[in-house]
Structure formats: C-alpha cells, structure tokens
Amino acid sequence: MMTPRAVLFDLDGTLYDLGALRSEMVMELLVLALTFRWRTLLRIRAFRKQFETLRELGRPEAPLRVTRFERAAAARGDRVEAVRETHDEWMLRRPAKYLASAMRKDLRASLARLREAGLKVGVFSDHPVEAKLRAMGIREEFDFALSAMDPNINAMKPHPRGLEVACTRWGIEPGELVYVGDREDVDVAVAQAAGARPVLIGLPGASQHESVLNFNELANLLLA
Q1: CB-CB contact of 181 with 15 (8 Å)
Q2: For the chain, how big is the Rg over CA atoms in Å?
Q3: Do the domain assignments include residue 176?
C-alpha cells in the first residue's frame, strides 16, 4: 500500500487516553455526587446522550454548535444556558488540566516522523478542538484543527464533510488521506464515506480494519 500524503487525526480517545482522563476526573465527579449536585450530573449525562443523536442529522441547516445544547436542555426540561455552562465547566475547563498527562505515549515523536517524511498532519473531531490541543501543548504540531461544530462543516461523523474540507485545505484527493481514530462505528465509517483510508489506534484485540496499538506502530505502518 502506498504512503499517504496526509494524516488526519480524531482527538478524544485518539491523541489522548480517554480512560486515563476519566480516571483523573473521577474524584471531581465524586465530589459532585457527595455534595448532592445531582442536577449537574444529570445535565452531563443528558448532554452526552443527546450529542450522539446529532449524527442522525447529517448536515442540517441549523448550527450544531447550538443544537447540541438545545437537545440536551429539551430532554431535561432545562435551560439551554444552564446546559452550556455545565458543558463548558465539566467537559472543557476541568478536564483541560489533565489532558497533557493523558496524552498518548510517543505521540510527539511519531508526529515528527510523519512530518519529516513529508506527510501533512491535521485534526478533525466532532468536538471543539483548539482549546484541547493548546492544553496538551501540541497545537503547533498540526497544519490545522477542524471541528464538526465549525460553521463550514456543521456535520458530525460519519458524514464525510469534515474530511472533505481537510482534503480541500491540503489540495489532495481523499484516496491520499488516512484518518486515524479510536471508534469503528464513526471513525472507520467517516473515512469510508469520504473515500479515505481508516486506521484504528489503541484498541486491543482483533479488528477487520487496519489497527495499531500505539503511535510508534502507526508511524511504522504509514511509512512502510
């Protein structure tokens, strides 16, 4: 298989270990429970559940960056602003301090290998990415960082819009792109929908798709 021209990465669970991050957050969430702040916990749960339903919308006219909060608020009979504030506090600001320590081993070195070989590298996630990449200290490692919430994308995986925008930005064809993620259901599906090559990372066990355990293996695979 030929060497690709560009590699686009998912963020959450791909560039950092989601399990490690959640372990760090356990104590903070436990404090919420022990202080009977159930409303906050229920808002977090509602947001996560409703966020997944946005995949069914394809590329809607309404902005997903607003719809994500409206759906969670409607499901809870809550205020949109209250859901937004809970999201920003508990899914962005508080986890940010743990992101650097949860970053995947060999990530920086592997990105350097890919760039030295002439490959372009970028990020595309369903979630906002800029603040997370800065918290990890790796924003400068990537050509650009795209989110499904960006107005010119406004489509969550597995809709191919995000990968199409990345290809346009780089001036490449989808067949020259590798998309690296950690979920078969959306990351493999979005790559296939766009005509790109999917590679899964960090998933032990057999898979019918190309899969590596870490970033060193990924660099070896793509540069072979």
Answers
A1: no
A2: 18
A3: yes
